[in-house]
Amino acid sequence: MRHSITIDRASYEIDPSVDISDLKAELESAVRSGGQFVSIVVVRDRLLDVLITPGLTVRIETTQARGLEAVPALEDSPVQVFDEFDEFDDL
């Protein structure tokens, strides 16, 4: 599973080591208290300190982690060449 967090309009991928249930509890606690900073570990070893307030829009999205998708080799299908100037050959 992959998780991302959107704070207002900025989105960040949450580090896989973060416990999402604990993060949600921290966010809810910050809102109940009227506002406080919450530290969120995101990918690439970055740490966000976000002031969570009752008026701030925060969304956590969960998606399935997908493996590498198979990409057909060029040899499997013929390569089509398109000359965009073909229509002007008659001039």
Overview of the structural elements:
This protein is an alpha+beta fold. It is 14% helix and 33% strand. It is built from one helix and five strands, in the order E-E-H-E-E-E. It has a three-stranded antiparallel sheet, with no helix packed on it. Strands 3-4 form a two-stranded antiparallel ribbon. Strand 3 (36-42) and strand 4 (46-52) form a beta hairpin. The chain is elongated.
Summarize the structure.
This protein has one helix at residues 20-32; strands spanning 2-7, 10-13, 36-42, 46-52, 58-63. It is an alpha+beta fold.
SSE order and pairing:
Layout (H helix, E strand, L loop, with lengths): L1 E6 L2 E4 L6 H13 L3 E7 L3 E7 L5 E6 L28
Antiparallel strand pairs: 1-2, 1-5, 3-4
Which keywords apply here?
91 residues, alpha+beta, 3-stranded antiparallel β-sheet, 5 strands, elongated
